[in-house]
Design a protein that fits this description.
By secondary structure, this protein is mostly helical. The protein is built from 5 helices and no strands.
């Protein structure tokens, strides 16, 4: 289970690190000063969420390195699995806030919250609802 978990984390790590790296550059652009106070707040919250997501998704690698050889693999897998799930939730929040900010800046239409809510619904369906349904449907009782 450890190998599978690490492979899964690698995929999520790549995405969150690219997103976080992009977010870090925004504050240094001329456009940042033109953002409204609300948009700057959304940006700051997004950066903090991205930092937290990065930490949670890199955590299993650090955990593995620090407990390797201690004969606690089962416990390490449980902790790493929880960190990964937390990282996915934080990545969902980061992606949602990023999308909200980008759409608010790109358009000033009232449909932005509805579009963001639709995308969040899609993420929830793909990342949580379908996997949980599959687990429930096909797991022997």
């Amino acid at each position: 289970m450890w190998q599978e978990l690490i492979q899964e984390v690698r995929v999520a790590q790549m995405g969150v690190q690219i997103l976080f790296g992009f977010l870090l550059t925004v504050v240094f652009t001329d456009k940042y000063d033109d953002l409204s106070g609300t948009d700057q707040t959304i940006y700051l919250v997004t950066v903090v969420l991205g930092a937290c997501a990065t930490g949670a998704l890199i955590g299993p690698v650090s955990l593995h390195r620090l407990v390797a050889g201690r004969r606690i693999k089962a416990q390490a897998v449980r902790v790493a699995s929880r960190l990964t799930l937390l990282g996915l939730l934080l990545l969902l929040a980061t992606t949602t806030a990023s999308l909200l900010l980008i759409l608010r800046v790109a358009t000033h239409d009232g449909f932005v919250p509805y579009l963001v809510a639709g995308v969040v619904g899609w993420y929830l369906l793909c990342w949580f609802v379908l996997p949980l349904w599959t687990r429930h449907r096909y797991t022997a009782r």
